[in-house]
């Protein structure tokens, strides 16, 4: 019974993360892209310390903190700013789909690092995930390289950050298991992300943050949802059915796109959903083809 309960914790974490992309976008609209992201990670850091306790920094290896922390902070900043700086809410959802290239990339990098025989389905499934992303970017106008280039040209920085973030998280998933050696520095990493975003905010020309009641409540909700997702997942991977949770987590792109589109009030076309399904299926097949070699690839789930 306890395993079932902890597995449900993992399911809850997946659902919470699926709401995050839409919530992050709304907070950055109410405050500002950088300032809003800084506020979210500050609230999440405080919430995690209240739930999981104040971290004891002396227990963490310096190598894990420096390398793992740098990757974690870089990923979180790339994703949060890609969502916040997108031209509109529809483009923010495109950033979310690009972010979900990380599961397929994680498996691909793991295959390269292991230097073991590669399953015949790995490369086609990774290619399917990339085609899915391209499909969502082109929209209902039809698949076209020129159309993809034109859409990216409207805001190349956000597309670069979203794609760069997916690569960074795939690297993080592959190297931190060895670096961490059973340690969990998620709270220091959240704190470092908040500090880095505050530094960037004060060095930027963004306007002063204005705290209205609706914006503050939305900020608190987003920070708690983010922190709760990590706290629940931390318990689930230790005591829950990880095989089931890993399988379910690969459907996060579909769940996240659905919930985020509802939160943001964005109606998505048929081609967008086709792309999301391609990304999901590509990642799922990629994981299935290598599941015996890389059984714990999902132990480092991101915020989305």
Automatic annotation (TrEMBL):
Major subcellular location class: membrane
Pfam family, one: EamA
Membrane topology of this protein: Multi-pass membrane protein
Subcellular location(s) per record: Cell membrane
Superkingdom assignment: Bacteria
Record field: transmembrane: 7-28, 34-52, 64-86, 92-113, 120-137, 157-173, 185-203, 209-232, 244-266, 272-290
UniProtKB keywords: Cell membrane, Membrane, Transmembrane, Transmembrane helix
InterPro entries per the UniProt record, alphabetical: Diverse_Substrate_Transporter, EamA_dom, EmrE-like
The protein's name: EamA family transporter
Native source species: Vibrio qinghaiensis
Classification lineage: Bacteria, Pseudomonadati, Pseudomonadota, Gammaproteobacteria, Vibrionales
């Amino acid at each position: 019974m306890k395993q079932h309960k902890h597995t449900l914790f993992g399911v809850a974490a997946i659902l919470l993360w699926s709401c995050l992309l839409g919530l992050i976008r709304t907070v950055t609209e109410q405050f500002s892209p950088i300032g809003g992201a800084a506020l979210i990670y500050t609230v999440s850091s405080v919430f995690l310390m209240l739930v999981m306790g104040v971290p004891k920094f002396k227990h963490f290896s310096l190598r894990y903190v420096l390398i793992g922390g740098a990757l974690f902070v870089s990923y979180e900043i790339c994703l949060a700013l890609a969502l916040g700086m997108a031209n509109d809410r529809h483009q923010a959802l495109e950033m979310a789909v690009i972010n979900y290239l990380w599961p397929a990339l994680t498996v691909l990098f793991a295959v390269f690092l292991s230097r073991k025989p590669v399953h015949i389905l790995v490369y086609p499934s990774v290619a399917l995930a990339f085609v899915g992303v391209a499909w969502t970017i082109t929209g209902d106008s039809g698949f076209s390289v020129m159309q993809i280039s034109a859409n990216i040209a409207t805001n190349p920085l956000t597309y670069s950050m979203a794609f760069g973030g997916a690569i960074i998280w795939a690297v993080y998933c592959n190297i931190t298991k060895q670096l961490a050696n059973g340690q969990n520095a998620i709270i220091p990493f959240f704190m470092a992300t908040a500090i880095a975003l505050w530094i960037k905010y004060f060095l930027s020309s963004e306007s002063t943050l204005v705290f209205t009641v609706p914006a503050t409540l939305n900020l608190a909700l987003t920070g708690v949802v983010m922190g709760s997702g990590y706290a629940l997942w931390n318990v689930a991977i230790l005591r829950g059915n990880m095989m089931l949770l890993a399988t379910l987590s690969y459907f996060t792109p579909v769940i996240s796109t659905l919930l985020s589109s509802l939160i943001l009030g964005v109606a998505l076309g048929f081609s967008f959903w086709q792309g999301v399904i391609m990304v999901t299926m590509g990642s799922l097949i990629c994981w299935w083809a290598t599941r015996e070699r890389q059984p714990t690839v999902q132990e480092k789930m991101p915020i989305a």
